[in-house]
Amino acid sequence: MEIAYVAVIILFCLGIYTIITKKNLIKIVFGVTIVESSLILLLMLVGYKPDGTAPILDKEYEIVVDPIPQALALTTVVIGGSVTAVMLVMVIKIHRRYRTLNIDEIRKLRG
Amino acid sequence: MITPGFLYLTGALLLFLPLHERIKYIISFLITTGALIVTFYLIPGYSLQLDFLNYTLVPFKVDSISKLTGLIFAVAGLAAVSYSVNICSLPNLRLIFVFIGSALTVVFSGDLFTLYIFWELMTISSSFLIIMASDFTKKTGYYYFLMHVAGSLSLLWGIFLQYSATGSLSLNAMEAGIPFVLIAIAVKLAFVGFHTWMPLTYSKAPFYVAVVLSIYTTKVGVYVMARLASGINILAYAGLISALFGIVMALRQNQVRKLLSYSIITQVGYMIIGISIGTFEGTSGAMFHLVNHILYKTVLFMAVGVVIYTTGKDEFDNLGIMRKKLPLTSIATLVAIMGISGVPFFNGYMSKTIIKDALHEPLLKLGLDLMSFGTSLMFLKLIYYAFIKNSSMNLVKKPTISMQLGMGLLTVMMLLIGIHPYLLENLTNIHVDINYFDKKHMISGIKPFLWSIAIFILFNKYVVKNYERLLYFDIYRKMGKLFVTTGYVLSNYHDGKLNKYLLWATTTLITLLLLLMF
Amino acid sequence: MSRLNEVFKKLYKIGLVVTFAYFLLFLFYDIHNLDNNRKRYLSAHYISEGVQETGAINLVASVLYDYRAFDTLGEATMILTAATVLAFLVPISKATTFGTTFKSIVKQTVKLILPYLAVLGTYLILFGHVSPGGGFVGGVVLSIIAILLTITYSVEFSEYIVKPDQKKLVEDIGAIGFVLLGLLGVFTGSNFLANGQAYFGTGNAGEVFSAGLIPFINVMIGLKVGAGLAIIFNSLIKEK
Amino acid sequence: MINIVFYLLLLFLIITAFFMVFTKDLSNSVITLPLFGAILVIIFVILQAPGVALAGAIMTAGLTTAFFVITINKTEY
Amino acid sequence: MEAAVWVIILPLLTAFFLGISKLYFKRIFFYLVTGSAIIYLYILIIVITHSYPPKVYSIGDWGLLGINVMVDPFSGLFLLMIAILFLPFIIFSMKYNKFLKHDYFIFAYLMVAGISGMVLTTDLFNLYVFMEVSTLSSCALSLYKKTDRGIEGTFKYLIMSTLGSFFILLATILTYYLTGTLNMAEIPLAFEDIPFKIKSTMMTLFVFGYAIKIGLIPLHAWLPDAYEDSPIPYNVLSSGLVLKSAVYALIRVLYIMFGIDFLDESGMLTIGVFWGVITFLIAHCLAFQQSNLNRLLAYSSIAQIAYIMIGLFVGTEAGLIAGSFHILNHAIMKGTLFLVVGIFSYSLNAVEKKDIKGLGYKFPILSFTFVVASLAIVGLPPFNGFMSKWLIVEAALEAGFVYAAFFILVGTFLSLTYYLKVIVTLYTKNEEELLIEEPSLSLKLPTFFLGSLCIVFGMVPSLPLNLITKIPTFLLDNGDYIRILLGG
Question: Which Pfam families match (chain C) (predicted)?
């Protein structure tokens, strides 16, 4: 399971890389989504125990995976979804106003 | 206990009341005379304590030096307010009240915290006085404010150093941070190199503002110097240099008030020398000189103010009006010029004599003579324009009664002190053991004056000449330009590209990681 | 020259990210090596006592709606905020839908699917405390009804079925209901958002009507999330 | 067995993520997004998190993709 | 301590009810907004007066198993700031916004709920959730005008602060991974035997995340952009509360979770002070260049927050007191300045420096308020800014950061350069005929209220300092805080 942490790191850094380098606004939002997913994956990994069962205790159990990270993950998913939605509608708005998605051309504010 | 500074500040608050226009005369009269009376009856040794945060402050403390200074401040306040009450608008009158009040509080303050606060308040009120006074003084006010705030921040830094070194805020001679305090004082008393604000301000500001400013700004600097940094001998030479510089510059000016401001630099040189000697005679000589200087310099500024009021400008040629149409002003001007030149039986003579007596180094003595000589020379120029040269000026307006009243009050006081110098000594219980009217002192007093008359007659052409190109070099503007350029370059980096901003952020992250890991 | 500069910039950015990845790798490695079985008394307590204390079999639900219900309040607020932002940004106007019109088979399929979706959403909401799912997931499923209507027919039709004002009302009622359910704890002499500790009757674990207030909170969250996401989606569609 | 599947899934996850970021066409990215979400959902199931898997399936793979599709639709034409 | 939780619920409920009122009961809108604000003020005062000794309120009655809410003097200070700023803000914006008021007040109430949640909660993840709530609603407010610049600035704000949030979330998850708990009292106990390197990396992640939201240079670029074309009353809350709440979270996390000893050992204190110095020097340089008043004030905010950082990072009792006092003072001073600019922009649409020429004679009292507030923010006596700067410098000197103390004075001078420029412009006569809409009393009253506080807190600093001096007890040494939170 340890390799999964590496995957988390790769995804996280890939998302950050996308956010800081890509010129397209939608690509930046993609980056945000990727980072978010990587964090949720990290939460799952943190909660995971080898040979554990899901935290729904309707039958006999020995090892149960940690329920707290799963609850946190649900909250994170919702927050991420809301933020992404707001970002996207703002992308649309910016495209309406500036007629471009290129981030280098969206610079009426400077100084 | 009502302190005079507090009285003035209350007066400023009272002027905020939505009262009839006429009431401002009554309030001004009551406050100014009240402050004078209160100051007169102060007992040296009295002090007031106040707990503020963790500090024990002494916002009010009287001793003989502060009483002397306070007294002359109150007198000059009475004169200045009655001079300007008729001319200036209500907001400006408020600011004048705040200014005078904070100057008086600085004089009577017993700890560094109070001193700093009211020192800064002086700066603020005077700057706003300049800024609000007319349309042409905005930039001057900006410059003045920045210069003085730089000075007072330097004082603050000195105070902090002193506080962290000694752990107390009491008003003794500084032990740490002396250079910073000296810079602060140098800005306030327009020491050479820090003087750039002075000719600019005094020549541009409306005349009543210049009168009020010239009374307090530099003199508070002198007073604080006597308190915090007296007895640093090397400064005597610095004072001498400053004074000589003032003379040279004053002789090259073509505006009366610029001449007067450079002459302030010269006169302050006397006080610096007196204070730097460090002995009792020296300090009290400086203080007496402060009193005298306030008297005659105020009268001179007021007289120029009357000329401006009546003719509209302060070119040298306009001074000619004095002889023809303004007899009272002429008398006052003559008395003041005699005083400033140190002619016996006029008031400047007394304090100059004390300082000269307290000096022991021959070089400084020579310098002092040179200073007297230069002072007389530059004021001979003034006399020449006012009384000798023909002019064809006409009165535009008549000077108001209150203006003449203020001027007359001070002139009478000058004459009194000049004829009977012991008056001041008795009033403040500072006794300097000098016989003013013996032969030796009289001759040494009159000598520079006579020399200057001779030189003036001989080199009339050069002294009276109108200089077209004025010496003006300002390093502070260059520093300001550097600041502006830096800001411009920096703001060009903010070109609105989000990628760039995010890149900065990531770089910061890595830097932080590297810094904190290793 | 500018090309070289460009390449250098790119390399610099990659370098930054790689350095950061390197740091993270070390961090994770260190943490992993530290102590693999660190005691987590909190989760251990939840696992061993959670069912008795809250009456919900689904531990995630019991954490989400009981132990850490305050988080859920924030999360619900988040959706409401997003929905309000979108509704605010998009002025009330005629909608522009996608360029293509669907064939009738799509419409028929959607018609058939919708009831199932409604049942699924309700199931997920009501059985949130005994099985995977819960108010949030069920709410999203319910919102998909509106979304499908929008996609296959048009925004007008979707909004004719459920008016935007009504959606907003449902959303607000959900949020207010959540807070009021929380305040029920205060009224019965316990603390805010108290459930397991406030003796609402945990019931028999595993039944539908058990776990005190958790099913009701689930319903509220479901209403809220469903209405909120439908608003968000329709606003995005209507944006022109 | 499950481990191998898990590793493979992680590999696919990373590949899809890279594809999503580095492909030139936005439509390609947006089509890859639900794939990415779906792989993530399977990983969640393997990690014994059915609740999160459900939410992720609906949110990441479903709604967010729909939002992206709408955005691209609105901005490119 | 039931009231503590009402501090969070009441604005939330108000926002929800406003959503309904927007659609169905338009008439009760005014009463709902103002009435709720007044009740909120009352609740806040109750909570603030009970903030010493700290009280714990367990949500859901779970004790350490669940989420707890705690009121201590440091959070009391922030509640005090809300109490001072919120009602004036409501009264001001009621008049300032000429249309579409509902959404505005929904966002405002949500934002305040988020901030008060951040301030009160003792749970690390809950802190993140409420931070997101306040950030998102703050974004919503800053794009409220729907202009090009507003949307662009908000987009930058949103992206940057989301980037910050990711790092905070990452660090939060790792904290849970390491300790198995999210309670702020238990984390420091579990942190004790964790290697230095891990802790310092985690701290970096936290610091970076919050520093983006605080806007320290070079992470500041979003801040002036977000301020430039947003409704001006929002800027009052933004600079007064949103930025400060990030400062709160940072300080809370650093001082409680990591502890002062670790901060000292890892060199964070030195870095923080140095960062602050750099920040305000650059910010002053930049602020001088601005022609837009909002941007100018935004850069000034960055600089002032750098002062606060210096105060809070010198790591002594005096430093914490000074920094906290400056937090309060900056909120008041910047609030006054923004409100005055807001009135100008309401009356004659003036937001550029050249537009306000000559207004000093048209609005004498307002301009006087502006002058007072700007002198206060520069740090000249006898106003409140001077008092807190004096305390900061003293604390920095005491702790041995002589260079920081010196540069604070330099910064004071630099900040005077641009504020004085504005003032001089204000008092330069303008011959043009101006079309002025006379501001009504509901615009002026909040402004004068905040302006008078500038003077009052300058003359009588012991008034707020009564509360503030208790802050270090529960912050500098985290032992007491942990004991109270654990012991109940």
Answer: MbhE (PF20501), MnhB (PF04039)
